[in-house]
Amino acid sequence: MNLVESRVVVKFGGADLSTGENIRKAAEMVINAGYGETAVVVSAMGKSTDSLIETMSQVGEISDKEYAEIVSMGERTSARLFCAALEVKGAPALLIEPSMAEWPIVTDSNYREATPNLEETCRRTQRFLEPVLSKKIPVICGFLGIDESGNITTLGRGGSDTTALLLANSLRAEEVILVKDTDGIMTADPKLVPEAKLLGRISAYEMFVLSHGGAKVVKPEALKYKLPEQKLRIVSFSDGLRSQGTEIYGALHSDSPGIKERKNLTAISVLSEINPENLSILFSRLKKPVYGISTAEGSLTLFTSKEEGEEILKDLHNLDICKAVSSRERVAMIQLTNPMLINSPRWNEKLTDALMSKSLDIIEITTNRASTNIFVDESKLEYAIRVVRNLVET
C-alpha cells in the first residue's frame, strides 16, 4: 500500500486540551507544523470523561447505550472548541462527530468496548474524509464510533489512540503523531525510576509488550491498525509536532498467524526453593538461550537447547541449592507471535482445548500478552502445528 506523502493524523490527549489556552496552543501547533494534509483527533478535555462517569455513577444504574451517549459529550465538546480555535487562527476547519452523515468509524454494538469494522470504516473515510483534506483540517472526535443502526459506541479507555491509527490506516497517511504529556517512551516510568531515559525508537511489537505490562502511553489494541511503513511518533505537547520524541516502527502483522517452530530442545526440571538468590545462581550457569521458564512451589522447569542440556544438568546437580534434577529430551516448541490473537478472550483456554482434544500431550505452555510458547514431544510437532494452525485460521 502506497502512503500519501505529507499526510498526517495528529491526536491530542485530554491533558493537552485541559484549558482554552492549551487548545489554542494545540491549534497553533497544527498550523505551524506545515504538513500538506492534516486530520486532527481529539480526546475529551482534561478529566471531563472521569467527571461524566462519576456523575453517572451517582445518578444510578445507566444502560450501556446511555453510557456511550453521555460520555461522548466530552469528545464532542473538545472537537467543537478545537475547530473554533483553528478558525480563529485563520485555518479552515471541519467538525466531524458521530451525529453527522460523514462520520467515518463504524463498529459493532458493544457500547463500552466496541470493535471497529475496518472495511466499512475505510470505505466511509475515503468517501467522506479524504476529499476534504486538501481544503480543510477535519477535527474528529476520538474514542467514539457508531454501530450499523447509528447508535453511538465507545472504543474503551484510551480509545482516541485507536481512532487516530484507524483513520491513518484508512487514509494511508504517511505519519501518525500522538501528542502526550510525556517526552515519548521512556525506559521506565520516571515517577518510579528517576534515571529513566527517553527511547529514540521502539518496535510496534515491543510497544505492545510494554503497554500490556502497564505502560499507559499507547493503547495496545490501537497498534493493530498501524501500517508497516507508516511513521508513528509520540511527542510532547511542550515540544511541538516536529520534535523528535519516540518513533514506533514496524507493525504487528495481526493478520498473520505468526507460527514458528524449534526442535532439539531439552526440558530440565529442578527441585529447589524458588527465591531470588537461588534463581540468580541457577541462571548464572546458563550459557545457551532459554526458550521458556515455568515455576511452581519448590520447582522450576526451563527449556534450552539439547547441547546445553547435558552440561547444565550435571552443573545444576552439584549445586547445594538443588534437591534433585531431571531432564526430558526430544522436546519441540511452537511459538505464536500474533499479539492481537493471543490477547483475544479465552485464547489460552481455546488453545489448550484444541490440543487436548487431539490427545496431544502438552509438556508446558509459557505465555505473556504478546507471544505464546507451546512445548510438546518432538514426535508430535507436525501434528500439533496443524492443530494450532487450524485454530488460528478459523
Key attributes of the depicted protein:
394 residues, Carbamate kinase, 6-stranded antiparallel β-sheet, 16 strands
Which spans have pLDDT < 50 for at least 5 consecutive residues? none
The best one-word shape is elongated
In total, the number of strands is 16
What are the secondary-structure elements, in order, as H or E? EHEHHEHEEEHEEHEEEHEEHEHHEEH
Largest sheet: 8 strands, mixed
Helix and strand composition category: alpha/beta
Share in β-strands? 25-35%
Mean pLDDT: 90
Going by CATH, the architecture of the largest domain would be 3-Layer(aba) Sandwich
Give the proportion of residues in helices: 25-40%
Query: How many helices in DSSP terms?
Result: 11
Termini Cα gap: 26 Å
Give me the CATH superfamily of the largest domain. Answer: Acetylglutamate kinase-like
Rg estimate, integer Å: 25 Å
Strand order of the largest sheet: 3-4-2-1-7-9-10-8
Q: How would you describe the overall organization of this protein?
A:
This protein is of the alpha/beta class. The protein folds into 2 domains: 4-249, Acetylglutamate kinase-like (Carbamate kinase), CATH 3.40.1160.10; 259-392, 2-Layer Sandwich (VC0802-like). The protein has helices at residues 20-33, 48-59, 64-88, 118-129, 159-171, 204-212, 276-284, 306-317, 339-342, 347-357, 381-392; strands spanning 4-12, 37-42, 93-96, 137-141, 144-146, 152-154, 173-180, 201-203, 231-236, 246-249, 259-272, 290-296, 299-305, 322-336, 362-367, 372-377. An 8-stranded mixed β-sheet has the order 3-4-2-1-7-9-10-8, sandwiched between helices. The chain has a 6-stranded antiparallel β-sheet with strand order 12-13-11-14-16-15, with helices on one face. A two-stranded antiparallel sheet has the order 5-6. Helix 1 (20-33) crosses helix 3 (64-88), helix 2 (48-59) runs antiparallel to helix 3 (64-88) and helix 10 packs across helix 11 (381-392). The longest helix is centred in the N-terminal third of the chain and has 25 residues, at 64-88.
